[in-house]
Amino acid sequence: MTSQNDCDVIIIGGGMVGSSLAAALGGAGLRVALVDRADPAAQADPGHDGRSSAIAFGSQQALDAVGLWSGMAAAAEPILDIRVSDGESLMFLHYDHRDVGGEPLGYIVENRAIREALFARISELAHVDHLAPDAIAEVDRARRGATVTLASGERLTAPLLIGADGRNSALRREAGIRVTEWRYPQTGIVCTVTHDRPHRGIAHERFLPAGPLAFLPMTDDAQGRHRSSIVWTEREEVAPAMLALPDAAFAAELARRFGPSLGDIRLLGGRWAYPLALLHAERYVDVRLALVGDAAHAIHPIAGQGLNLGLRDVAALAEALVDAHRLGLDLGAPDVLAGYQRRRRFDNFVLMAATDGLNRLFSNDLAPVRLVRDMGLALVDRLPPVKRLFMRHAMGVVGELPRLLRGEPL
């Protein structure tokens, strides 16, 4: 049997970006169908995803404005300082939150806690129908609207279909949207560690010849142990050997690369490995279709901006759709979608180019290059106006911001 459900927007992909968009639109009164092939209960399991995410200050403002932040605030550790260093060099760059008004530069939150907050909020919204686990069986995008038939037999119709289905997006492929893409010869190793000394809200990014090593401050656990989330970029041919080490030897390798400032380091829980790649769609929109998050772009984790780019997509697209809805306009009209693409594609491209360039600049051990980049770090550290501008960029509060990124309701 097939039932039909008419809605304003169909979102395919219930990850952190897709669910955030569903919460934003549903909270503003739009009828949303959120379809995800993954079981929400499985996604909330600690073994599903051991990563934590950096949430920039602007992104936190957006999450708060749509009623999501309160559900994850207790698990969020403020980033008060960021220290960027180049291996063993004595020159470094230090960002202090007090230099830009006293608000945290951002927060570190476990992905599991983010998902729990998202699912709890979505369950409260009468305008959001969370269809999971379920998957697309057939898609028909026509000039007059989009129709999706699910594996369960349910048929959904809406003026707009949104692809939040990740970097291997089936909707992007179905639309024939090409991508610029390449793999980095690096693997991202992710884990959580405990350490003897408190991190004091300091995020460390240490550039090493194989790639950056980030120690990101987390909340203390229930036993009062100091924790940090690790994102260790290693050469892809070396990463398997690191992952195969016993826990104590793995922690010793981390300590050797990071140094003694946090005291003894011990592994807490599992380890995860992710291939690193860059991807950018040639366009974000098609007939009755908009792409958000990793379906449109994926970047190197060097600056911890991946989720933030997706949340900026959410803020821009939600504003465009809610404004169109209030005016009685067609949500899938080309001019509505073009405005979203115009607002987001260039911003994403600039940050992708910056992170790619930084990774290439710092992931080598050539002495002349080391000297130039160390002098650059030291120079920026001694130029307060330039440093404040970089900090505001990292906070996501530069440029013409959508209302949500300013902490304003839709």
Layout: helices, strands, pairs:
Elements: E1 4-6, E2 9-12, H1 16-27, E3 32-35, H2 40-43, E4 52-56, H3 57-65, E5 77-79, E6 81-86, E7 92-96, E8 106-110, H4 111-124, E9 128-131, E10 136-142, E11 145-150, E12 155-158, E13 160-163, H5 170-174, E14 179-195, E15 202-208, E16 211-217, E17 226-235, H6 239-243, H7 247-258, E18 265-281, E19 285-286, E20 289-291, E21 297-298, H8 306-326, H9 334-362, H10 367-381, H11 384-395
Parallel strand pairs: 1-12, 2-3, 2-13, 3-9, 6-15, 13-20
Antiparallel strand pairs: 4-8, 5-8, 6-7, 10-11, 11-12, 14-17, 14-18, 15-16, 16-17, 18-21, 19-20
Characterize the structure shown.
- This protein is an alpha/beta fold and 410 residues long.
- Strand 2, helix 1 and strand 3 form a beta-alpha-beta unit.
- It starts with a strand and ends in a 15-residue tail after the last helix.
- The strands form four sheets. The chain has an eight-stranded mixed β-sheet.
- The protein folds into two domains: 4-53 and 60-75 and 107-181 and 278-362 and 397-406, FAD/NAD(P)-binding domain, CATH 3.50.50.60; 193-277, D-Amino Acid Oxidase, subunit A, domain 2 (D-Amino Acid Oxidase, Chain A, domain 2), CATH 3.30.9.
- The chain has eleven helices and 21 strands.
